[in-house]
Amino acid sequence: MWFLRAPAAVLALVAVALLPSASAKPYPVEAIHHIEEIRQLHNASQVAKRDCGSGTACGYYGQLCCAAGQQCITDANNQAQCTGGGGGWVYSTFIYTETDLVTRTSVYSTFLGATPQATSGCTTAELCGGVCCGSGFYCYDPTAGTCRQIGGGSSPGVIGTLNPSAPLRPTSSTLIVITATGSPTATVPFETPIATGVNGTLVESNQGGGGLSGGAIAGIVIGVILGIILLLLICFYCCAKAAFDSILAIFGLGKRRRRTHEETTYIEEHHHSGGSAAAGGRRWYGQGSSRPSRPPKKEGGGMGGLLGLAAGLGGLAALLGLKRRHDRKHDDKSTTGTDSSYYYSDYTTPPRTLPLPLLTKLFRTFLNTMEKDTMQVDSPAAAAAQLKNADGEIDESLYSRQLYVLGHEAMKRMGSSNVLVAGLRGLGVEIAKNIALAGVRSLTLYDPKPAQLQDLSSQFFLHPDDVGKPRAAVTVPRVSELNPYTPVEEYTGGDLTSDLSQLKQFQVVVLTDTPLKDQIKIADYCHENGIYVVITDTYGLFGTIFTDFGKNFTIGDPTGENVNSGIVADIDSDGLVSALDETRHGLEDGDWVTFTEVKGMEELNNCAPRKIEVKGPYTFSIGDVSGLGEYKGGGQYVQVKMPKIIDFEPFSKQLKKPELLISDFAKFDRPMQLHVGIQALHAFAESHNGEFPRPHNDADAAEVLKLAQDLAGQGEETVELDEKLIKELSYQARGDLSPVAAFFGGMAAQEVLKSVSGKFHPIAQFLYFDSLESLPSTTRSEEQCAPIGSRYDGQIAVLGKEYQEKLGNIKEFLVGAGAIGCEMLKNWAMMGLGAGPNGKIWVTDNDQIEKSNLNRQFLFRPSDVGKLKSDCAAKAVQAMNPDLKGKIVTMQDKVGPDTEHIFNEKFWENLDAVTNALDNVEARTYVDRRCVFFRKPLLDSGTLGTKGNTQVILPHITESYSSSQDPPERSFPMCTLRSFPNRIEHTIAWAREMFDSFFVKGPEIVNLYLTQPDYLGASLKQSGNEKQTLETLRDFLVTEKPLTFDDCIIWARQQFEKNYNHAIQQLLYNFPKDSTTGSGQPFWSGPKRAPDALKFDPSNPTHVTFVEAAAILHAYNYGINPPQNAKKEHYLEVLNDMIVPDFKPDPSVKIQASDSDPDPNAQQTGMDDNDVLNQIIESLPPPKSLAGFKLQPVEFEKDDDTNHHIDFITAASNLRAENYKIEQADRHKTKFIAGKIIPAIATTTALVTGLVNLELYKIVDGKTDIEQYKNGFINLALPFFGFSEPIASPKGKYTGHGGKEVEIDKLWDRFEVHDVTLQEFIGHFEEKGLNIQMVSSGVSLLYASFYPPSKLKDRMPLSMSKLVEFISRKPIPDHQNNVIFEVTAEDQTEEDVEIPYVMVKLQK
Asked: So which residues are the catalytic ones?
């Protein structure tokens, strides 16, 4: 928090202010070397070095004064003593709990002087039972005439320790001695010090006591009064200064405040020290103000007041600048670290390192109490809402795919946010569903209106028997099932506008289905009080969204893209940076970079980020580098993400002059018209008892048009209205379509997550969208669109009854029931797709439900884990829409060549359309080819984090999915992975290959040897790596075959030594660190990082994890069960008993030095020593001797955190990174890369499926105009929305008889013939003007024009099917009803013609 970085002067003031109320409370001291800091904090008389006058100073800081005749010594307890003076030490203890929940025992000591010799002839005040107490003494026992030296106010008796801790805060101005102490002499309860002058009996403990004088008490009282007056003056000044700054801010004057960001070990602290007061003191990442997350409780203690007091002091510190920064060079810049990248901002100040670490501990208990007070939860359900599992961490098993989109920091911020969603028709429940799945602290739903039958058109959590019940009451329990970490409750505050102060308990308010006047009232109140607002509504095929995140909203990561980095090849004197080996740097103008490992210009290393200017794909400029010296070599550049700060205007102001984000550039003129038209709809509703215009009612539409025309002329510029567009908006105003709700529901939920996380750029501020192309070509009228008492009335209001019947009779095939599949089925259930008498839906998915699926595949519940996805998804949507019962056929088969007997010709020909919901290219390509073959429309879509795309494939109209190819998967050169990694991605790929080699491929080779006849014969020689395979068999079956689990531990330790020590030493033997290339350049330069061999360290967790995981997986291969609850000590015991061989360099080893060099170890024919191979073969046990023995290859599973797969890969990768001094990756990042995980979030999935189903409307309608269809490309992070017409299928031409030009569709056209003879087949094409040159089927060449007549004599009379069986020597499968032939031909001009394939129909 800011206190921990505040100037020392302010913190000292707070310390003084808190002193009276905490006089007996200890505070931790880091170490004895902070004694100087303690001295600075306390009165000089308490700790400062004393002026002994004629005496002798004694002790660490001269705390003792030895009188004349006394000597200063150190006693047996390591205490300073004055000999000859008597006296002794009193020990005190205090046991307390710090903020890190660690119990500490602190020990303190006080020296009490000896009883002095009494004197006579003293004053009455000094008289003590007939003796006189001298200066510095008091009368201890008048009856005995005993005097005692005045000592510190320490409490008696405690446990001693050799580790010094904090002293007790004194209650007198007398001496306190702080030194290291010895063993305790006694332990007694802590007692409050007794001040001098208090009535009561002084009880002796050991040898002394002490108290406060009257003057000391008076001093304290006066000091407290003066302190209170000072604090009141400070508060007054802060308020006045803040008011003055606010006035300046209104006029754009004054200085911009700066933000700081601190992350501590135990609690996360983000604070904002500037900005507008009206903005609610927003945090740098966009989180709301520090208002309570729950309604404030009436009862409270004084800590709240102290917090306000401390905040006031913090403000004063910031305003007065009590601490000057020492480094003027970086006065306005700093860096802050989060996750895998770090941010840099002109608006932040350097983290101020507290000069007194002691004060950090002093205030941490106080501040942690305040933090806990604001973060406390009211119930176990609310505690779960922190998105954390039982260990206090984010539940990665549930949120893993979303974490790769948002990151841990954003997820934690979301987990402390309370969200209100108002309006629970289709759009509202879609937003609530997506927010609940994402995970926030709490989700509150508001909609007291009774559910209506037409709500069922899109509200998937309403059932027919819920009609008439309050929407919120029936929706809340169903939304709450989605995520156990997100408590969902109903808003109980009554009308939203009757008491706006109730909204302060929320960070975000989402409004749907809300009158415009209420929208204005609520949105403006939220703007003034720092509450984020999202307003969104849909009207049939139209929709709108508005966002207001207040003033100075800070976006920590505007794009969500990974930072670019690379290796520096050169930096010239003008600051031009060249990337190594002409690698594209991927930067853009205005990006920022910093550097590491640069030689010659060392000041660039870890420098403040520099703004770059792109000079080319391989070069960029960093500006002036004068004074930095001459570049000598090396270095890496890393892009630094810059936060972006934007100001939002209130809703009422934006209504008059909106800022628009264009969703479709082909409709550039529509957003402003819709802005006016939707206001006109609200004006109509206000004058018609809250009802929107009736479906397709011309009178209502005319009234809306008139209202819109009046509004269009009220702004600064008159808006030109398209009468047809405004009337269509009126026609559809009561419409409620599930695909449109899905589109805006995904978008709105993502905006909510942006607001509370600061991740990604929000919509600024209005967006309008329509899909009028989805309107059916059938005639719509008021009669067609009038409600009929059906659950589909919301859809009928837009599309009409006739079209609804078409939807019900569609036969659709859904391939995949994962995230997209679930959303697709939900939309179809709401639309009534396939629910008619002739309709049907087939859905297939061979996958089972896993816990990680629950975060975005919302049809599934925890009880479904382990069940088949297709079955559970179908059951869930049939509950949503009972009309689908008996209409969904579930299957569990992959769609591929192996299942063509299931998905046969009859199956495909029965379909109307196909929808892909797949996550891999291979399966999508196969389905695409089948759709092309059977000429079926296909809808394809995919998501990647916040990105998504949709594609529509139409027979004879568009190209297919396979017509374009995705970019190839990124791969790394083997030479780099083997010997010269320079990025963590290299070490992870290497570790993943090691996993396969150790635990998958090796056991598979062994099993082949044991089961395949003559494996060492032909099969082995055909593999091309005979020696390597034989060595693997020897290792697994002879030299390294374990008998016990301890043998597996030994094997794992040997692998550590082999890979991280010996291999590295061998590499350095071949290429010493001082070696050079043929051109004289250092060999270890550029991308080559010189490694260091590792020595196994049993105290290093990564080293031990590698051995543990490798041993367990190796044991699994051999069916050996590890001992239950085997602890680290057992592993170490085994390791201590084993002998690790020393490294001996092998001069015969050759290592490939560059990717461009030939691999010196590549096997060449005849190069292997046959004697060596035969020797290995002879050492192998014959397979017969191992009858029944079989190894268990490991099946890699990334999502099982108990199987040690990712543990092994993470440890193996990080050990190699340690070899090469590469920054290591945590388990989370390693899992992402090694598991090739596709980032996913429910918001993108919902939006994309909405777009897909808008295209499905068009397919069902039978549209053939390619301009009516849209392929979509979206990125919610930017945000970006792009739509384009599909690419038309490729066309070709050839010249036929008589010179006639014939056009063919190269993709969709084909020639279809019956099972004729080859002679008839050739003649058939000659009639079309094509001369056949070659005919083939699969890999069999059946005919060629250059074949001699003798070869063709027997083929020409054969039917085409018999010819295939004759040449291929394989029968045609029974389920196959046709055979495909590829043909090459020439036209009448003897030009080669690219013609479609030929399908021969078999007679069965």
From this structure: 975
